[in-house]
Amino acid sequence: MASHKHHEHLEKIKDAVKNSKELSDEEKSNTLKHIEEWIAEDKASGALYEELTNITAKIEPILAELGLI
Fold first, then answer.
1. Backbone angles phi, psi at 63, to 5 degrees
2. Are the beta carbons of 17 and 31 closer than 8 angstroms?
3. What are the sequence ranges of the domains in the chain?
4. C-alpha to C-alpha distance for 58 and 56, rounded to whole angstroms
5. Cα 8 to Cα 16: distance, rounded to the nearest angstrom
6. Predicted TM-score of the model (pTM)
7. How far is 24 from 59, CA to CA, in rounded Å?
8. Rounded to whole angstroms, what are the CA distances from 52 to 1, 4, 16?
9. Using one digit for the tens of pLDDT, what is the confidence trace for 4-63?
C-alpha cells in the first residue's frame, strides 16, 4: 500500500514538473528522468526528494505546493 502512495506522489511530481514555468527544459528532462528511474526501482520518496533538490533547488516550491514536503 505504501508503494502505491509513493507512486501517486511521484506521478503528481511528474505532472507538476511538466507544467512548471520555473524549470528549464533541461531541468525538466533531468528531473523526469530521475523520477522514471525511481518509479522503476520503487525507491523511498524521501530519498527521491533529496535527489531532486540536488538537481535544482527550484523543485522545492513545487513539492511544497503539492503538500509533499
1. -65, -40
2. yes
3. 2-65
4. 5
5. 12
6. 0.59
7. 11
8. 23, 20, 13
9. 677 788 889 999 999 999 999 999 999 999 888 877 776 556 677 778 888 888 888 888
